[in-house]
Amino acid sequence: MGDEIRRNMALFPIGIVMKLTDLTARQIRYYEQHELIVPARTAGNQRLFSFNDVERLLEIKALIEKGVNIAGIKQVMNPVSKESEEATVLSEQSEVKRRELSEPQLHRLLKRELLEKRPGKASMIQGQLSHFYKR
DNA sequence: CTTCTAACA
DNA sequence: TGTTAGTA
């Protein structure tokens, strides 16, 4: 269950998610409007995305590139409910934790989470990770 | 960063 | 229908 918590922890602001997914802020908000993702919010009403949210966005991106529309994607992906609630509940403490994490720590965590946990999908994500490694 | 409205192809 | 520009 520890893994699930980590995956649902809201960690990333939208700017980071933009780089990770190569989506614009508009697109990300658009997908949220259509309930494809339900990111947590900070006290200042800013989005905080979990690993699950990022994975979801990458799937959405891939599906849309294949010509699948929002309605189709909704049917393909499991409805957002349980995870989002947990992510929302965790938002407060996650916000604190995010600030406590140093950049290298966050990078390490992200790398481990995306590469170790996803043998099959790692290749798709690796390209996006370059944004995170460089700097 | 957020939200909203309107506009494009 | 998905996405974007301009705005406050």
TrEMBL record:
The keyword DNA-binding applies. SUPFAM superfamilies: Putative DNA-binding domain. It comes from Paenibacillus cisolokensis. This is HTH-type transcriptional regulator GlnR. Pfam families: MerR_1 (PF13411). Keywords: DNA-binding, Repressor, Transcription, Transcription regulation. SMART domains: HTH_MERR (SM00422). Gene3D superfamilies: 1.10.1660.10. PANTHER family: HTH-TYPE TRANSCRIPTIONAL REGULATOR TNRA, REDOX-CYCLING DRUG-SENSING TRANSCRIPTIONAL ACTIVATOR SOXR.
